[in-house]
Amino acid sequence: MPDAASLYASDQPTYGMNSHAVHEALVEGLKALEHAGHAELFTSGLSAVTGALSAVVGAGDEVLVVDTVYGPTRRFCDGYLKRMAAPVRYFPAAATAGEILALATPRTRLIFLESPGSQTFEMQDVPAIAAAAKARGILTAVDNTWASGLLFRPVEHGVSLSIQALTKYVCGHSDVFLGSVATNDPDVARQLTAFVRDTGASVSPDDAFQGLRGLRTLEVRLKRHGESGLEVAEWLAGQPQVARVLHPALPGDPGHGIWKRDFTGAAGLFGAVLKPAPRAAVEAFLNRLQLFGLGFSWGGYESLAIHCDPQIRRSCGPSHLEGPLIRLNIGLEDPQDLIADLRQALDALPSPFGGDGSR
Ligand SMILES: *Cc1c(COP(=O)(O)O)cnc(C)c1O
Asked: CB within 6 Å of ligand 1 — which residues?
């Protein structure tokens, strides 16, 4: 500071927390990405989710959460939020705006959405839900990590808080944890800023730099992830060991209409329901993959696969899957190489045309 008076009166940053030039540049980039007037940085995607919830929800405020929400978000809602005396109820991903709002009470503060849903990729009519919630004075939040701000802009559709794990597509290399919350609601913006200040949710300048660097190539990477993902998804849907591919950009998907109306493209993450097979055969399939790594992250340059059944939690009834569920993150490799890798690994699964897991 140039002089003592400036210590308390300057409009320049006076302390490093989230106020370096690199933080400001990343925030400006995210505002442009999400078409939002305000964005706040968090140390991970999960801290953006929990920060958004903590910033706007108080004791006694009820939260309605989509049943297909990201698992750790559910854990926070069922643990911390409930302990802080904020009741949480779940509704099915297929619920309409009217059905969701019929659950609301005068104490309902926030409706938390995720579209497509975690693991099972159901689409929700976010604009209709946001409009109906707004009419009742209820906030809406969307975990927008799949669309990464580029393929869908929740705040343009009336959503109060758009949350992203920048860890995934924005950073893009599976080596940085970073999150963001964007909003056009000035009251929410004030609450988010106060939450970050009061809790010290400070992002390291090096991580912010990685986020900024990722933004510069997000569009070309995401286009490639999306196109390769669809190519692999379409191929997989035709395989005898596969019952169904869960990908909203596939024309036969139940969420395809909403995806086509609201989204400008596809990401590279989707699910595949296999024909019934023992757990050992599913694990053998995964173990045979050469090009795909086995790992939980996604949005990065390298393709990854997991089986989902051990981690799926649903409150509103079973998800009616015909067999085991796998999830694929399609990276930046040649999609034909990925298809060849899947083709040889699928031999580990039972099939009407041979391949019984014994090889
Ligand atoms: C990974 C992920 C998060 C959390 O991001 P982290 O940076 O790993 O904490 C939140 N939401 C969704 C949908 C995710 O896939």
From this structure: 44-46, 49, 70, 118, 143, 145, 165, 167-168, 177, 179
Q: Class of the 218-346 domain?
A: alpha beta
Better-scored residue on pLDDT, 14 or 332: 332
351 CA distance to ligand 1 centroid (A)? 34
* Burial class, 229, CB count within 10 angstroms (exposed 0-12 / middle 13-18 / buried 19+): buried
For the stretch 200-236, pLDDT in tens is: 988 999 999 999 999 999 999 999 999 999 999 999 9
Closest C-alpha residue for ligand 1 atom 5: 45
pTM of the model: 0.95
> 47, 49, 70: which to mutate for ligand 1, most atoms within 8 A of CB?
70
What are the extents of the domains in the chain?
Answer: 14-213, 218-346
Ligand 1 atom with the shortest distance to the CA of 165: 5
Q: Exposed, middle or buried, 84 (CB in 10 Å: 0-12/13-18/19+)?
A: middle
What class has domain 14-213? alpha beta
Give the 3-state secondary structure of residue 171: coil
